[in-house]
Design goal:
Four copies of one chain form a homotetramer.
Chain A (H helix, E strand, L loop, with lengths): L1 E6 L8 E6 L9 E9 L2 H7 L14 E9 L17 E4 L2 E2 L5 H5 L10 E2 L19 E4 L5 E3 L6 H20 L7 E5 L3 H12 L4 E6 L2 H10 L3 E4 L6 H12 L4 E6 L5 H9 E9 L9 E3 L2 H5 L3 E4 L5 H13 L1 H9 L1 E6 L3 H9 L5 E5 L8
Parallel strand pairs in A: 10-11, 10-13, 11-12, 13-14, 14-16, 17-18
Antiparallel strand pairs in A: 1-2, 3-4, 3-8, 3-18, 4-5, 5-9, 6-7
Helix pairs in contact in A: 1-11, 3-4, 3-9, 3-10, 4-5
Chain lengths: 373, 373, 373, 373
């Protein structure tokens, strides 16, 4: 018996379908999951293009939901303490932190764990047990993975439609908490930007301005709770965007600006949009895109807080699930946001679709009939 | 009857002694103070050199203590509610915020008040009532000034020896609170850097490394509570300093790094010294010294908090006085830190001494006999 | 020319309509307002019954909106900096804090100001200028009152329908901030309890259980965002209510419990409903209703935070107005919540209606034709 | 080969010396420690007297330091990541939290862990492997124990002299952080009260008043940093104590009052000592000593925060060790605070000495020659 997976063998090369041996006897705590749906994250595109250092060959896919096929030991509890059973629909935090290092233990910053490893990113698929990414029929979860049983009311589509963008935005919101009634400007309407709108709304922002594009992304932002949107195609200069944004949040700037663009130039524009004494959240700079000219005098004079946030912890997955559980409308929007579905055999096309930013969310359905899309 | 003051008539030109009319009948809330001691702040040097925009002519001096000569109304209370009397030894917050604008009222950031004015900085001495700076025999305080009666145990020398550097450091500590036991690296051993050491010590830092020079400033840092000092003359490269600093605070970097240098390059060095998830306080960038190349990816990846702090509020003066009141040793150190005293007639020399960074603190004693120093 | 007002001359006695002289020349900062609507707050009933110490005779009414008739000086700005004009529709913070005492200045707790005075509560109507309460055709606002120009989109009915309960709940939420996604139990469905539901919802609570009654109040709670309600008539024992509440928030209790009942027994019940390490907000104990038996061991062992909050500050009025401005649905609900309207001449009946807890909010329309209700 | 331990077989009965089999092959992560010194905590007296529920028979002792004799696996790291070796001098957090339950994981309150077990408290000594308390020649630490290698500069005497009172006070300080310069009143001068003085001093309190007795405890409080002490024998009424305390901290009360008495009546006295808007920390109510009459109106009107804190986490042990490492003077004081040392054979006398509150700290030296004291 064997398991099929889409493998990245070389940067910018098409993913290839390969087969791996079905895992044998599982060790205690290990869980074998049959993958229902694997989201394609913007990071996957970066990984594919070789913009971040990862081992090759590699089975990508770190936004995944599926069903438990086998467990290495029982009873096994999910992260919330719910007993797991074969057949349960589950998702999991993509990274495992050690829980023991300086950052995990003393500084409570597990996202900076010194030995953190992420499914779909950090594992070489030529090393046994191979199946450590979501673009595959099955994935083998290590003992210690933060697994979450998905509530019946939450569809896997809504969860993967939200993706790791939502958990990332939730973590950022925790690091830079809004005061209730704060005004917020979100720079960027990619997945993280939209998720930042969702979270700012849920956390009590009074006004939310989303700056980005193209138009269908701005419509999504409005649907997710933005008070106003600014189309960078219509207002191509920072000055014009500033003027439009301040008309909504007031002349002094926003209480919080959340950068979700990724291009480093957005940082200087964002700082201008922020009121004195406000918070500027640098959330989009996941990849090292180089230097910008920057004037640190601004930090002192505007009396700013500039806050970084990296990835997320299991409890942010917990919150994402709870948010979806509580808000049916949100689930429907994230489900509807999935515009492209591919079978595993077309993983390369799926990645290319995501790269071309063609629509909404692209996903792979590894165990669906090869007639999808 | 007339009042003598040292006036800045043109940038980089020597201060000139001029006489102004003694104020007549005071309005309610106004207080006329006979100046005992006026500190020369590093900012005064910047002002003298024309590096910040101020009106001319100008009576400099924003670190001042003196005795009440007349009051426009009685009873008048000091900021803490203590009744003031003629003859009382007093100091005051150098700036007056309006208390009513967006920043004062709604955002509680009075240091960013839209109409804030500072004695010794914002007033043109050719406009009546002229006497709005400390380099003068007398200063006329506006109604609404946050005046503090100085406790008997606190000498005016210790207070002006500490200067506005101490209140500035206290404000920064409030904006970026230490967790008890945190490790701290202070970049710079000018007045603000030394004050940052004092405050970090008082606020419970477990290790404090001061990076700066020259040697006599490092000795002061040790006296004020630094666990270790790094001489930039001995370790001229950022790499060497980093290695030395991390030996004290641990290999991951300090929990908090406080930039008190003013040169923008210190910012990139400071961020490297900060542990992931730590706080980087940008406190020294009071003047606009231009751009640096900066990589915002660092903020996201290191999950930092970068915190600016501007000036101080009256309550920070209150705290500074209380700190000196509680710690006799600290008073003695700040008193001893005054190495140069000049009569008013030598205000130009005083400013030049401060500019040459010749020793410790330089002060003017406007009402002392012309034989000082 | 004279001004009519309803005056409380003796506790438990009917309010009597009296006339007072129209104020003459206004002092700078004073504002004379023609009252459109004055809410009857539960506190007014307590005042009427003599349960709180106030001077008599007294014009009650501390929830008021009206139109500016005259101003003692111009330009006069409202609290947000908007210029005020005759005819503007306004409301104001009912209390004036001194801004200078120990609590106002040093501890930033102006609700504990040592000389705080409230319209409709602290002023004797036999002392000139008499008109210091809302149950009157006109009210004379002192200089220094935090006046707010009401945005066009916000009806005075919605604002007074929300009343000081909303600002009180907003202050409490500031003192005991929710973490986004927290579960909340609100004890009591009087005006403060309902407002606590509104604020918890706006601040990002994931589940809100309201415990109270009667049924029409519980329906309001559901309309305002409660996830579930518990009728104390149906579940008369604390044990039954606890079981029902924990079914919603989970077996360990709620992250935050907000006591809005007023009866001291609610405190012990609320502490039981709170999870270990959670927050218990004591918001309803405005009147001194005496002792309860209490076991302080619970505080230590459950590792609780028990948080008190008293009244509100002008910025909470600001937030209340912004909240209403942003949420049309909320405005409609508060407007609909006004079930009884009385002319000034029937102020005694109005108070009695509020005392009997007959319906929703009761208001007085002092300048309406005497045919109201 | 066998191991001797002092066993509590019945409440209020003398501890009896018994022998247990030397543990055999250790499991991975287990550590066998030869006990150098075991502190007698006030809780041990409560346990002895049967005031808390524990299994019998029981080897008491949860404040312990010793040397590693054997390890079940290598390399084994201490909590800070330092490799452990046979012969290392170590201490450890007395409790093990599961890390997986609702409180450990989701609420980050591991002191409220649902399955927490403490050495010297929760284990029945008749169950193998028996050696789970500090009053013994050896103690067998479970895998997962938070072990700390003690730095060479920190004597075991200073660490056990400080005891779990210090870590308890550190946890409380984390839950109720002082603002720098706050005034503090500590109620009680038992071990926890003295530790609260130490921590308040280290955390930046400006004034610390300790209320307690007898005189030698008050002298210790002064030595540890109290600004003033109040002897309950000299001022037997709450009113007199209040007057004396407010003379030091100011007429409005202290910013923070820390109850470390244990008698529930201290709670009402402490609340009176607290300024409006201040923090009241209920730290001493570890045992359930019953109800007091309590008026919850005070919480609302004084706008208080009442904060409980239970036990401590491993990171508080880390901080305690760092505090001692940084302050030689503190080490000397805690060493000098040990006034009674007993061999293991006199454990019953040791416990009785502690119960009689005869002097300072009492300790057992299980492996010392039987000639101690």
């Amino acid at each position: 018996m064997s398991v099929r997976a889409a493998v990245l063998n070389g940067f910018e090369q098409p993913l290839l379908l390969e087969t791996f041996p079905e895992p044998g006897q599982l060790a205690p705590g290990e869980v074998l999951v049959s993958v229902d749906i694997a989201g394609i994250c913007g990071t996957d595109v970066h990984l594919w293009l070789g913009q971040l250092r990862i081992p090759l060959p590699n089975i990508l896919g770190h936004e995944t939901a599926g069903r438990i096929e086998r467990m290495g030991s029982e009873p096994l509890l999910d992260w919330r303490g719910t007993p797991l059973q074969v057949g349960d629909r589950v998702t999991w935090a993509s990274s495992i932190s050690c829980g023991e290092c300086y950052y995990c233990r003393m500084k409570k910053q597990p996202t900076r764990c010194l030995t953190r490893k992420a499914y779909g990113i950090s594992y070489c698929s030529s090393d046994a047990p191979h199946l450590r990414g979501g673009y595959a029929e099955k994935i083998l979860l290590r003992a210690g993975t933060a697994i979450f049983r998905i509530p019946d009311s939450v569809s896997s589509e809504s969860l993967i439609g939200a993706g790791c963008a939502l958990t990332t935005a939730i973590h950022a919101s925790e690091r830079a908490p809004l005061e209730w009634g704060d005004t917020v400007i979100v720079q960027g309407t990619g997945p993280v930007g939209l998720a930042a709108v969702v979270v700012a709304k849920a956390a009590g922002a009074s006004k939310i301005v989303a700056i980005g594009g193209p138009k269908h992304r701005l419509d999504l932002a409005l649907g997710f709770g933005a008070s106003a949107v600014i189309d960078i195609a219509e207002l191509p200069t920072a000055e014009a965007r500033q003027q439009a944004a301040l008309e909504v949040v007031g002349p002094h700037g926003a209480d919080q600006v959340i950068e979700c663009v990724g291009h480093p130039d957005a940082v200087n524009e964002g700082i201008v949009l922020c009121r004195d004494g406000g918070q500027f959240v640098v959330l989009g700079q996941y990849a090292d895109a180089g230097n910008i000219p920057f004037n640190p005098h601004t930090i002192t004079r505007k009396q700013l807080r500039v806050i970084g946030s990296w990835g997320f912890e299991p409890r942010h997955v917990d919150r994402a699930i709870r948010l979806l559980e509580n808000e049916p409308g949100l689930r429907a929007k994230f489900e509807a946001g999935i515009t492209h579905k591919f079978p595993l055999g077309q993983a390369a096309e799926a990645l290319d679709t995501a790269r071309r930013w063609a629509g909404g969310k692209t996903v792979i359905l590894p165990n669906a009939e090869e007639t999808a899309n």
